[in-house]
User: What shape does this take?
Amino acid sequence: MSRLLCIIDGMTDASFSVADYPLLAAMRSPAQVQTTPRGQKTESLTCILALLGVSTPPPFLRGYVEALGAGIDVDRDDLILRISWLALQEGRYGAPVAAPSALRHSCAARYHCLGGYQGLLILPGAAAMLEQIRVRPFFSKGSNKAADLRPQGLPLLAQIFDQNCAEGICPAFWGQSRPVSLPPFPGRAAVVCGSGVMRGIARLLAMQLLPVPGATGDVDTDLAAKLATAQAAAEEYPFVVLHINGADEASHRRDAVAKHRFLTRVEQQVLRPLCNSRHTLYVIADHATEPSNGRHRGGPQPLFYHAMGK
Ligand SMILES: [Zn+2]
Assistant: This one.
């Protein structure tokens, strides 16, 4: 018998009501769990790590976890930055646009397109510069002047920014990072997921990452394939993490209807069969994500629990 932890990313919000989900309502809810570690941002990385027992993650972790999740090899002294590609018009940046497949000028940097508007930049041997770099995250409040996104503290990075601000797009750098080692997750454990950050967490904690064909990390994911993979994993591993990301993405798109529809499908197509198995099931959100404003919100999350015969 296995323990299955189903993390439903961004499940809750101010208007979330367990009464809308009859199976969850019928499960025991023995606790409210504070998932955001003290002093940390409310994001999937920190909250999921906390759920897995890492309550004080090292700083500057996100870019490295993205690289791990994408299967990108990095060396210990590499500097890693996330790139969000934004529309550029008359010196001002706007909405995210599709990431290009390559940088405009080849240089010492390595660039990886991560799909959507996301990319990753690797500067070999530059990890020692990590704390000198100053970048203004594009989602900060205030000005949307492209010049304010120009990184400070590392001339090569500023040069890459200048070279790639052209033809209506500009790179917004953020999430500077370097490789770190964390102790492996105690015990044999498997992870079933489709999102890059969860794949990265699995590799960071040396948990067995199980591929799921058709898992997209969004509402169009193949729930039947994820269920089948989780059920097979539960026969082999004493602890299985099943991460489901679509509700968070729908919330970021401010689509409350799609979020509710997706959660209903998750309940019927994933949670119900798992409740009818001989395994113990825990269900929790990593954090709330509000469809009203598209943002994450911290605060205690209800833990749901089901074990056959209890
Ligand atoms: Zn999110």
